[in-house]
Amino acid sequence: MPELLGGSAALTGSNLTRWKEAVDVTAAPEKGNYIHYGVCEFSMSAVMNGIALHKGYLPFGGTFLTFSDYSRNALRMAALMKTRTVFVFTHDSIGLGEDGPTHQPIEHAATLRMIPGLDVWRPCDTLETAQAWIGAVERDWPSCLLLSRQNLPFVPRDEAQIDGIERGGYVLVDWPSQSERDARRVVLIAIGSEVTLALAAVEALKKEGVLAAVCRTERRGDRHRPLRGVCARRRALRTFRCDDAGDRRRSASRGRVNFIC
Fold first, then answer.
1. Which residues contact 212 (CB under 8 A, 6 or more apart)?
2. For the chain, domain boundaries
3. Would you tell me how many other CB atoms lie within 10 Å of the CB of residue 253?
4. Gap between the Cα atoms of 84 and 82, Å rounded
5. What homologous superfamily does CATH list for 4-146?
6. Separation between Cα atoms, residue 59 and residue 158, nearest integer Å
7. Tens-digit pLDDT profile for residues 171-183
């Protein structure tokens, strides 16, 4: 996509937003497609909005998720102006904590999802990351991609599950079809890097005599339907027959959970 114009707020090496063929934008007359914004997250986000309003480019820029606070006003303006911008936020949880609590996002994902008109994606592996990028490129409003920095394993899926990624909620692991009606069962709800933890818990719970199913959700907003993520999650959860007697639901999140959006 020649219209891509990337960048980072002095964290290119950590965000990994620069691709091999990228050319830095400098004072030289040669054309470039990657901007080094420096340590100024708000300025980067505001400039991206201006570039998107000018048209002709699809701007994206990266920083740590915990620094999204500095960009807050520009993110809100992006949603209000419906700019086609992609905000890349890495280090999405406490999964990597060598920089201490100042770099560990807790409430940030939840507060981003509270902004109407802002799509928020938190992928759990490479396939979901690719789908998040496709969705961000195809949409005419802003998107936030909340990406992990630690390595995450690839999760095998069938075609129906792959289709469910874009809808926002799908069943990754269902209960055995021949499970007894009175068997102890639980639904594990997870997102992002917590999906790996939920999948690992399935086998651990099985040894304890508990049948576990895993629902992967993406609680994100939508320009036309702000609670679309919630609706998708509810559709996916109905697959589990969660209203049946004895069913239990548990969610896994490395941060503050917001149940409204």
1. 173, 175, 185, 186, 187, 188, 201, 202, 205, 206
2. 4-146, 159-252
3. 17
4. 7
5. Thiamin diphosphate (ThDP)-binding fold, Pyr/PP domains (3.40.50.970)
6. 33
7. 888 877 666 555 7
3-state secondary structure 8-47: ECCCHHHHCCCCCCCCECCCCCCCCCEEECCCCHHHHHHH
Q: Could you give the C-alpha distances from 18 to 102, 146, 172, 180, 250, in angstroms and in order?
A: 25, 17, 32, 52, 38
Residues 92-135: tens digit of each pLDDT: 887 766 678 888 888 898 899 889 999 999 999 999 999 999 99
Separation of alpha carbons 16 and 182, rounded Å: 49
Between the alpha carbon of residue 75 and those of residues 72, 102, 195, 226, 232, the distances in Å are 5, 21, 27, 16, 24
Cite the active site residues.
Answer: 41
Which of 155, 151, 154, 141 minimizes the C-alpha distance to 223?
141
Residues 215, 188: contact at Cβ < 8 Å? yes
Residue 243, by phi and psi: left (phi above 0), alpha (psi -120 to 50) or beta? alpha
The pTM of the full predicted model, rounded to 2 decimals, is: 0.82
